[in-house]
Write a structure and sequence with these properties.
This is DUF1007 family protein. It comes from Sulfitobacter profundi. Keywords: Signal. The chain has one domain. Helices cover 18% and strands 34% of the residues. It has four helices and ten strands; from the N terminus they run H-E-E-H-H-E-E-E-E-E-E-E-H-E. The longest helix has 11 residues. The protein is globular and about 55 Å long.
Length: 216
Amino acid sequence: MKYPLVTAALLACATPLGAHPHIFVDTGFEVILDAEGRLTHLRITWAYDEFYSLLVTEDRGLDPDYDSVLTEAEVASLNGFDMRWVEGFNGDTVLLNGGEEIALSSPQEVATTFSEGRIITSHLRAVEGDAPDANGLVIKPYDPTYYTAYEVTQKVTVQGDDACRARVKMPEMNADLRELQQDLSALDANTDPNDVGLPEIGEALANEVVITCDAS
């Protein structure tokens, strides 16, 4: 994920050893289908971990009494803080149809809440081009570098077609992947994994949301 530079710098200074991943995001999806069972939109929810949420609010001078309660104006000032994407950034969300990636729009209908010390944001993304049949589609939320770890723990719902449902598939963890994960966790916050010869493993560790639809 791409973050404002001030917050990223603050994170690098404050994150302890064992710093990969740096940010943890509980993720959810609303899969929106049309009357023909074609996927037209994804609504994506990101619930940031308490530590990163604290860094963001501190960086912006919010919640000075540290009571994990923000005013409506303070919450409003956070809206869109994580939507400042550089050109070409895919929003750490990949939609696949038979292994082929389907392009998604830039974020729309951005919303932000703050609950129990955590920033929670949502945004809508439209399928660009022809809407694909939902059956067999796969949604993968991940940061290739594993700087940010996404886990699908929030609600995943399908709207628009009762014949379709979603299930979450966890990654297959083999010995090599576990060893790489341990090597990454041992890096300090200022070390780039590529500089020490470690590969990008975000995709291999990604949860998958698989859409299946009953035949009519």
